[in-house]
Design brief:
Two copies of one chain form a homodimer. Helix content of chain A is about 40%, strand content about 15%. By secondary structure, chain A is of the alpha/beta class. Chain A has three domains: about 60 residues, Arc Repressor Mutant, subunit A; about 120 residues, Alpha-Beta Complex (Aspartate Aminotransferase, domain 1); about 220 residues, Type I PLP-dependent aspartate aminotransferase-like (Major domain) (Aspartate Aminotransferase, domain 2, 3-Layer(aba) Sandwich). In chain A, the strands form four sheets. An eight-stranded mixed sheet of chain A has the order 4-11-10-9-8-5-6-7, with helices on both faces. A four-stranded antiparallel sheet of chain A has the order 12-13-16-15, with no helix packed on it. In chain A, strand 1 and strand 2 form a beta hairpin. The longest helix of chain A has 28 residues. The radius of gyration of chain A is 30 Å and the shape is elongated. About 0% of the residues of chain A have low confidence. At the A-B interface, helix 1, helix 3, helix 4, helix 5 and helix 6 of A face helix 1, helix 3, helix 4, helix 5 and helix 6 of B.
């Protein structure tokens, strides 16, 4: 009698329950090396199951080497099976922070997805999925679907005046993914990387995770202060957001662009241009990428997370020729390629100019929301504040000269249901931007924006900052 | 007269053509620092366009800092713009190998996609895309959709007897992607990793790319020879394919499994279990994962590339609790998450048991093809060969004792339209498996398999190997 109990209502088949029970007995040492097992006939009778069921269990145990069966003798337990059992640790879950109730979420980088033409997207997805050839279900290559790269090239040409060959475009799973592969290519072995300060902290963490050593270059209202580059003793690739500096919003002026490219050429460096949201510029046309100045020196990083939707996970990089073979090799060995269906649907979305139309519509909406935000700030604070940077993007940095926003302030905001980010949280060198707040408005309805500013004003008054 | 020529048939708007032409003139030094530009009225007349068109161009050039406009004076070119122009290199393309015409492609790891229920998949994709809530278009978290993780847990329970919580399952973009993140977590700073030899060379490259230092552990017909572990001076995480060793096909016996887990415990190491194709076992039930023996010591890596289709890009890992927070942090900073639509469609595919049915069907088909292959080999070579390993998977390693397959042989195969992989190409230490060939049969129709074996036999005879 082995004491096996079967649960006839379980989804687990009976043979597997027997197999599992025998295995547990052997691993825990209750059935010992060399010990004879009952014959399949005996065990079947004892458990009231068919003999075939027991045979299935025995066969898998034989295949896995738990028991040894020789003709004419009993089936016996193999040697060397005993392992001390370990109790699984208790309360293993990743615990989330106690969810605070947030009524106004001023976080940055969130597009308004409720405006995205989801019905149309589904139609396109359905259409392309019907047309996708059999080969599209297999490996389709690390560079991304050729049709998608063609459409991206056309989109960049008609919207940004960028003249780029589809052969130089490499599909990614978004900007972060693109930056990761670039870091793998450029920043091995404790390599220096020159980065705007402040910059996007998530992106900074990406480079730190790769073991890069960070050299901060200060930023002013016009973006990276390229004069500082010349003072750098040690150089490495340069990361910039020239069209709309994150988070301060400056446009890098032409003379600094030229200085940057000259510096990169003199030191044989690459420039990584992160163009994360420059499609949304409200006071004029989108700024031309730095890439146009020197396509063999600048790596351009773009994404569809903001102009389409984040869960799409499609972005792209435009790579200098010298890096292309290495990129393909690396992509093949990290995550192989993007899935096919989204690539095909985005191709169609671009081809039919639906994305152009969507961006056009969103530019108006975001521009309107920005206006509401700035008007609300004026109502609440008069002239005690300055909006930083160009009129573009989904967020704005607001400077309140003379104020200092510290931990107490941000905690008080959270407790009052207001989520707001300090510019300081994106700073490498701390202490220089404590009077600035980041307000993301793109995803918020005008009323929510107005309420948020009132809430902010109340908190500032209450804490007497 | 600036000599600007406009193309009125171009998709590039006229204002952008003017903007581009002026920029080129400034960057190339033909328009020099301080030089005055014509007024917008003059240029509009000269180019026969509306004044607004010229204003658009001038406004963007002002925003980008190329020109400076002060009231009452001429618009002038900014300082410091000149950059020496660089000719883009010629013939930049990544060149593919001259395409040889392959009539029989015995490569490994390819499922037969023509059998995949594509129509059904499209229906499911369409259905879930209609039901996906708005939130699914935004960031849905680094761990993957909870519903998908629940369905994977249920699938593992009913098919493998694996009792795992959905909280411990982490969605990946396939096995390679999972192994990359694991390597990032476990193998920093030149860490040793103990790897089966032979092993999958692509996976090996992944670890080498991370800077891991490779310690090969020899493999025999029963998988990793765990006795060699005890002789290792330096230890690190251990990579194994215990259910179906790649490429030789052995099942790691229970005593070696126990030895492996004891060794990992004594040295406080993790075991990485790559379960790449064990759903397809033809002589009995799928082998139980090593994971079942010690869930806090074994990292289980699974994929849907073989059982569904490669372009799906969905796999999963089951992680010990201690590694989960680090995984989420790392995923957030590398490629953020999987796209939503495929995850939702796969959820439905699992929930409705369509994947169970597909695997069941494919097991029969692959088993039949394996039989055809072995019969053809017998017809062509009599008893001069041995099939290695368990009756499972999409490929088999064939040993031809006494023969030595070298470069001349593989070149001759290619020239005759036969693609076949040497086991040696997957070896870390070379020279021990030169008599073995890898034949992938899963994706091939019986006739193609038969022709391939005849072709192989002809080549072997011709070269007198």
């Amino acid at each position: 009698m082995l004491g096996i109990e079967l649960n006839r209502k379980s989804e687990l088949k009976l043979w597997r329950q027997i197999y599992q029970a025998l295995k547990d007995l052997m691993l825990s040492g209750k059935l010992k090396a060399g010990e004879a097992l009952p014959s399949t006939r005996e065990l079947a009778r004892e458990l009231n199951v068919s003999r075939n069921t027991v045979c299935e269990a025995y066969n898998l145990l034989i295949a896995e080497g738990f028991i040894i069966s020789r003709q004419g003798t009993h089936t016996r337990v193999s040697d060397g099976l005993f392992i001390e059992s370990v109790e699984p640790p208790l309360s293993p879950k990743i615990t989330n922070n106690a969810a605070l109730s947030i009524s106004v979420d001023f976080r940055t980088g969130r597009p308004d997805l409720s405006q995205f033409p989801r019905f149309l997207w589904r139609q396109l997805l359905h259409k392309v999925s019907e047309e996708l050839p059999l080969e599209a279900f297999s490996y389709t290559g690390p560079q991304g679907l050729p049709e998608l790269r063609r459409e991206i090239a056309a989109w960049l040409f008609r919207n940004r005046g960028l003249n780029v060959s589809p052969d130089d475009i490499f599909i990614t799973a978004g900007a972060t993914h693109g930056l990761n592969l670039i870091a793998d290519i450029l920043c091995r072995d404790n390599q220096k990387i020159l980065i705007e300060d402040p910059c996007h902290i998530g992106m900074l963490d990406t480079f730190i995770n790769k073991g890069c050593s960070i050299v901060p270059i200060p930023v002013d209202t016009e973006g990276m202060q390229t004069d500082y580059l010349l003072r750098c003793q040690k150089t490495g690739p340069i990361y910039v957001t020239p069209s709309h500096q994150f988070p301060l919003g400056g446009i890098l002026p032409a003379s600094r662009r030229a200085a940057l490219v000259r510096f990169a050429r003199e030191n044989d460096l690459y420039i990584i241009e992160d163009d994360y949201d420059s499609e949304f510029r409200y006071s004029g046309k989108p700024i031309a990428p730095l890439y146009t100045i020197d396509p063999q020196r600048v790596i351009y990083v773009g994404t569809f997370s903001k102009v389409a939707f984040p869960a799409l996970r499609i972005g792209y990089v435009i790579l200098p020729h010298r890096l292309q073979a290495r990129w393909c090799d690396l992509r093949t060995h990290t995550d192989v390629q993007n899935p096919s269906f989204e690539q095909a649907a985005l191709t169609e979305f671009l081809r039919t100019r639906k994305l152009d139309r969507h961006v056009h519509k969103m530019r108006k909406i975001y521009s309107q929301r920005r206006k509401v935000l700035l008007e609300s700030l004026e109502e609440a604070f008069g002239s005690e504040w300055v909006a930083y940077g160009d009129s573009a993007g989904l967020h704005v940095a607001i400077d309140f000269p003379g104020m200092l926003f510290g931990e107490a302030f941000y905690n008080c905001c959270l407790q009052n249901g207001l989520y707001i980010t300090p510019v300081e949280s994106h700073c490498i060198e701390k202490g220089r931007h404590q009077s600035k707040l980041l307000i993301g408005y793109g995803h918020l309805e005008p009323d929510v924006i107005r309420n948020g500013v009132v809430l902010l004003s109340d908190i500032i008054k209450k804490l007497d900052i």
